[in-house]
Design a protein that fits this description.
globular; disordered N terminus; 9 helices; alpha/beta
């Protein structure tokens, strides 16, 4: 069989990744309010995950319980949800927390100990205040929150950044 080896330039382009300055952490409320049925936004999240340098499997994270809940309530298979949400395998002590808001904050705090040391939690508009007033959050500077249009714009910004860096590497 004839084949042509890839050039170093081609290999570099295929491996081109973008430094994403935040880890994205999601709760099921964000899915229900913003992401459900928005295939364009789902594709953007999948693209960001595929292009995030240094933390591909730890980008666009959701707790196992929240992901299972989304699958069960929306009659989705896990493979579908896995395209845009990575399940995080973290300490049992965090996953055992029943309250989704507390569990999500604890995941975020845990993730701030690793590069890129900043986390954005994506949730629904009606849950923002609950997150911000949680005793587990207490104005941690390395964690911020996004919902609704602000979340869409933030995801769109990072999608365009990943796409544009990829395209500029091909010129």
């Amino acid at each position: 069989m004839w084949w042509m080896p890839l050039s170093l330039e081609t290999i570099y382009i295929r491996k081109m990744a973008t430094k994403v300055d935040f880890r994205f952490v999601f709760d099921s409320n964000f899915f229900e309010e913003t992401l459900k049925g928005d295939f364009d936004l789902q594709q953007k999240l999948a693209y960001i995950t595929s292009k995030a340098s240094g933390n591909k499997k730890r980008q666009n994270i959701i707790s196992a319980k929240s992901r299972e809940y989304i699958c069960r309530v929306n009659n989705l298979n896990e493979a579908t949800v896995k395209i845009f949400f990575n399940k995080i395998e973290e300490p049992e002590v965090i996953e055992s927390v029943e309250d989704e808001i507390i569990r999500t904050i604890k995941y975020a705090v845990h993730l701030t100990s690793e590069w890129p040391f900043k986390v954005v939690i994506f949730t629904s508009g009606d849950k923002m205040g609950i997150y911000e007033n949680s005793e587990h959050y207490k104005n941690i500077k390395s964690i911020s929150f996004k919902s609704n249009e602000d979340a869409r714009e933030f995801i769109d910004y990072w999608f365009k950044k990943c796409r544009d860096e990829r395209l500029s590497s091909c010129e």
